[in-house]
Amino acid sequence: MLKYILKRIGLAILILLGVSLIIYVLVRLMPVDFVESKIAALNQGGAQIPEETVEAMYRMYGLEDSSFLGILRGYGSWLLALVQFDLGTSFQYGDKVLNVIVDNMGVSFIIAFIAIILEYLIAIPLGVTAATHQYSIRDYVVTVLVMIGISLPSFFLGRLLQIVFVGQLHWFPQSGLLSGGNFSIGDYLWHLVLPLMTMVLLSIGGTMRYTRTNMLEVLNSDYIRTARAKGLPERSVIYKHAFRNTMIPIVTMLAGVLPTLFSGAMITEQIFDLPGIGNVALKAMTAGDIPFIMGYNMFLAFLSVIGILLTDLMYAVVDPRVKLF
After folding, report:
1. CATH number for the domain including 168?
2. Which of 128, 131, 99 is nearest to 296 (CA)?
3. Residue 282 lies in a domain
């Protein structure tokens, strides 16, 4: 086990190096950057920025050389700081990128954590019942409703829920986390209902379809037919034998849970004006905040690699046949 983990950690380091190079080059080749955005904002006020000042700003932010060699030199400097856990200083927020991420991911974590729990509690039973009642009215109704949820973009569904439950019914607040200045758990959770509803409705479709497909495959296996031939009750066949083996492929989906918990939901957080890391990252990307974009994406890449490693280890837990050494 230890040998396997060390081997995977070494592979993860190589993957992160490759990802870091791709992220740095792509971000440096972006058609917009923070300096351009800042100069454009100053020019709108009627000020004329001298060329010398523009060049000085590029030098100050380390963006003066956009040639191939200049990008490679910049990558080397950034990578050296990265291995020292220094993600740089955000142009947009004027603070260390790591501090900005840590300070703003709390709200995103709470929303994502609750949404993932609700997603699995709803989607897995729906997938099981759709598979055990294949081609029935129940299967068709569940499938149609789920496909509608999959097809709706997050910005459309979020605005639709605001129009119905805020504009028409006046049941929920439109945005933010608090109605007044005083903190209240009830008020806090009440503000999260619509964002959670948006995220859950958009996510249960994929999990439900994946569960249904795997459940159908297991139900058609020889050992399931043997269990039924022995006279086992159908409930025991489904939930004791079939469902446990259905969960094995579903474990692969856990690889995406870790980055989801900390990455935030950009569009949803923006629609409901939530102070989460997704909303912060979207504003930084719009402004061309290169250090934050690179640091944020490397943070997500690191979480993704850790998530994949944990998923591989979970296989040995849910399936005793899997050996890691």
Report:
1. 1.10.3720.10
2. 99
3. yes
**What is the number of structural domains in the chain?**
1
pLDDT at 54: 66
Q: The tokens of 7 are what?
A: 């081997």
Tell me the C-alpha distance between 314 and 51, whole Å: 57
Mean pLDDT, 10 residues at a time, the chain of 325 residues: 77 87 80 66 63 66 67 81 83 85 86 88 87 86 81 85 87 77 75 88 84 85 81 80 74 72 79 86 81 86 83 68 57
In the block, residue with structure tokens 């081609």: 135
In sequence order, the 6+-apart residues with CB closer than 8 A to the CB of 283 are: 92
Residue 103 buriedness (CB in 10 A; 0-12 / 13-18 / 19+): middle
Q: Is residue 324 part of a domain?
A: no
What is the pLDDT, as a whole number, of residue 175? 77
Q: 180: number of CA atoms within 13 Å, CB side?
A: 6
CA distances from 223 to 134, 146, 151, 283 (A): 19, 30, 36, 54
Q: Which long-range contacts (CB under 8 A, 24 or more apart) does 73-78 make?
A: 74/24, 74/28, 75/20, 75/21, 75/24, 75/25, 78/24, 78/294
Query: Which residues constitute the domain of residue 161?
Result: 97-318
With CA atoms as reference, report the closest residue to 276 among 43, 150, 103: 103
C-alpha span between 267 and 276 (Å, rounded)? 11
Give the pLDDT confidence score for residue 269 in this predicted structure: 85
Q: Report the distance separating Cα 289 and Cα 124, nearest Å.
A: 40
Does residue 72 contact residue 241 with C-beta atoms inside 8 Å?
no
Query: Tokens 């998923």 identify what position?
Result: 311
> pTM of the entire structure?
0.78
Task: Name every residue whose Cβ is closer than 8 Å to that of residue 233 and which is 6 or more positions away in sequence.
Answer: none
Chain centroid to Cα 87, Å, comes to 20
